[in-house]
Design brief:
alpha+beta; Beta-Lactamase; five-stranded mixed β-sheet; 11 helices
């Protein structure tokens, strides 16, 4: 643990807030919060526990700093960031601490060996939507408490504005701009799974595994608008979005791509697991009884994310698979690679040029 000064340096704090509010991506903003508060509090490790709309744990971000001596004999401060998604529960000691924070709506402290675990609530409107957690050997001083509360308030307000700008107004799903941001993050993580460096700061994230991208389209949606009107059409879009949110897993990313078309990006260890996720979504829509329309189906085309391809090429593969599902009768889930193996699409290694 690093020593901290009794007084927070105002110019340094303002500079960190300036950096934080220049970010245009919510996940990078969360990482910036940890980078800002850790050094100000003189601690090496900070964590952010983010909750979803159902108050379930959506993801955890751990930030660690350490001073390392490299081969040239120079000591440099190295940062490591670990992002954990799709975790069903918190560690017992963290859960006990944050549960008190949730119930009281204010910071709480819990003894951990010879140290103190300290948690502050993150608010989204009037609800607790996450926790800022750190460990150190002493209680928070009044001036430090004021600093933490102030930074968290700025963060929460800015996060809310940024989140709105990345949301589709009708469905509340992420929009195309958010999709482009996540393209950049996922491709960077897959191309550099171990580490990458900016100036003298090294950053490492958890190995991303395999990702799959799907394009999802509501079957015969034009007929819904033509027969029942656009108000019913909008209601259908909203219901489909809600059903997908409840059927996909907590860590899966869902976007409204435009009109009746959606995009999903999921992590899965293999094709069988990916297909199972998409089939579950298709079946959930097929089984639902929609107002006025009653029966409705979706078609899905998906492809594995390959970091050696441009994001638009992977999106194109999923879209072509979707189009084939439409041709073959709709209410189907098609995998691009499976269609290649069946000879329906030419092998991209030979039949088309792919740029990187």
């Amino acid at each position: 643990m690093l020593s901290s000064t009794s007084q927070v340096q105002v110019p340094g704090l303002l500079g960190k807030l300036g950096v934080m509010t220049s970010i245009r991506d919510t996940e990078l903003l969360e990482q910036s919060l940890l980078r800002s508060l850790g050094p100000l509090l003189g601690v090496l490790d900070t964590s952010l526990y983010r909750l979803d709309d159902n108050q379930k744990l959506a993801r955890v971000i751990h930030y660690h700093r350490s001073r390392e001596v490299e081969g040239d004999g120079m000591a440099r401060m190295v940062e490591r960031i670990e992002i954990v998604a799709q975790r069903s529960q918190m560690p017992p000691d963290i859960f006990a601490l944050t549960e008190n924070v949730r119930l009281l709506g204010k910071p709480c402290t819990r003894k951990h060996e010879n140290l103190l675990k300290i948690a502050y609530p993150l608010f989204g409107g009037d609800e607790v939507c996450g926790y800022f957690v750190f460990t150190r050997d002493r209680e928070v001083a009044p001036n430090e408490d004021a600093t933490i509360r102030g930074v968290l308030e700025v963060f929460s307000n800015y996060y809310a504005l940024l989140d709105v700008s990345q949301r589709d107004r009708l469905t509340g799903l992420l929009n195309r701009q958010a999709l482009e941001n996540n393209f950049d993050r996922i491709w960077t993580a897959m191309m550099r799974p171990d580490s990458f460096t900016e100036t003298d700061i090294g950053r490492r994230s958890q190995p991303p595994g395999r990702y799959w991208l799907a394009v999802i389209d509501i079957d015969h949606f034009k007929a819904v608008n033509d027969n029942y009107g656009h108000m019913v059409g909008d209601e259908v879009l909203l219901l489909v979005a809600r059903l997908m949110q409840t059927t996909f897993r907590a860590g899966d990313l869902i976007y409204r791509y435009g009109g009746e078309e959606f995009v999903a990006i999921i992590a899965a260890e293999n094709d069988a697991l990916a297909r199972n996720v998409f089939e579950r979504v298709r079946l959930a829509i097929e089984a639902h009884s929609f107002p006025r329309v009653e029966h409705l189906t979706i078609s899905i085309g998906y492809a594995e994310v390959d970091p050696n391809l441009l994001p638009l090429e992977v999106l194109s593969r999923a879209d072509r698979s979707l189009y084939r599902a439409k041709q073959d009768g709709r209410n189907l889930v098609y995998d691009f690679q499976e269609l290649v193996e069946r000879g329906i699409f030419p092998n991209p290694s030979y039949g088309e040029t792919e740029l990187f």
